[in-house]
Amino acid sequence: MAIMKRVRVKVCGITRPEDALAAACAGADAIGLVFYEPSPRSVTVEQAKLIVQNLPAFVTTTALFVNADALLVEQVINEVKVDLLQFHGNELAEFCGRFSRPYIKAVAMQADTDVMHFAETYKDAQALLLDTYKPGVPGGTGEVFNWKLFPKDSVKPLILAGGLTPENVKAALGIPNIWALDVSGGVEIKKGIKSAQKIADFIQATL
To answer: Out of 19, 29, 131, 182, which one is annotated catalytic?
Structure first.
């Protein structure tokens, strides 16, 4: 019997409880909370608590960090219902794996990026998230990288991020070896504020 593969969806940069619920109701597998103050989608620990307190079962709550102090990571884990960590900076594998949660590691894609090297270096990662490279901007660029760079094979699950929208998601699904899609700005009314309709349109396009 053939096994049907469904590409999973994470809606990142959630800043409001209603946006988290909209993502869950639309069928999102995960939401992302950004704990990086320079980001327009950043949330505090108190905001994050409110966002996740009414989130239904089976929606993975992901906490995103960029070169954060270990104390902040521990605080978020201890005070927020966090299932998964996402590291978007220059964190070493030892740092990423020292906490009591599984993690994924973001990789900024360039023409010479060796994804296999990252898979070997971050061997404890649950997945690698391939995102657009932009100097000084650790994700959330709203820009698409060259999808021809996406590896056809990998020893780890690969997540596609960077510039995804309801309009280009069908094309993204044509890329082989995608485990999940990570969308943020492409389903927003403005930075940090999601559109329930755009979220629904995005997820519907993946089915």
So the answer is: 131
